[in-house]
Amino acid sequence: MDRTRAIDGLARVLLDAGARADWDLLGRSVGELAPRLQALGAGRPWSDVERAALARLRDAHGTAAKAVAAASVQLQLRMDDMLATKEGWMAYALAGDNHTDITER
């Protein structure tokens, strides 16, 4: 297979997985990068066109990393919000339990 197409394919997977928030696919793809690039690089030096594809792959990796960081921030905000309202939810749940107890008597 043409190495440039293979490298561009790796970049597309990273970009797509990051854009769709498919963290499982992104994790697997990132984990496969080093072995795949080592296999592709074995035997002969990279051409200028292939080096350009590698630069695109590096950029795609950076874009995917930014997507992960943004999702992490959103998750942290959601968790902070849940923690801030935890006492209210617990009081609501307890009030519901007490109400059920009273009506069953």
Describe this structure in words.
The chain is an all-alpha fold and 105 residues long. The protein has a single domain (3-104), classed as Methane Monooxygenase Hydroxylase, Chain G, domain 1 (Up-down Bundle). Helices cover 88% and strands 0% of the residues. The protein has helices spanning 3-19, 23-41, 48-84, 86-104. Helix 1 packs parallel to helix 3. The longest helix has 37 residues, at 48-84. The protein is rod-shaped. The protein starts with a helix and ends with a helix. 13% of the residues are buried. The mean pLDDT is 90.
Summary tags:
Methane Monooxygenase Hydroxylase, Chain G, domain 1, rod-shaped, mainly alpha
Structural class per helix/strand content? mainly alpha
The major beta sheet can be summarized as: none
Number of domains: 1
Average pLDDT confidence is: 90
What is the overall silhouette?
A: rod-shaped
Q: Please name the CATH architecture.
A: Up-down Bundle
CATH class: Mainly Alpha
Determine Rg (CA atoms, Å). 24 Å
CATH topology, what is it called? Methane Monooxygenase Hydroxylase, Chain G, domain 1
Helix content: over 70%
| Total of helices | 4
The overall strand count is 0
Estimated share of beta-strand residues: under 5%
Low-confidence stretches: none
Distance between the termini: 75 Å
* Secondary-structure element string: HHHH
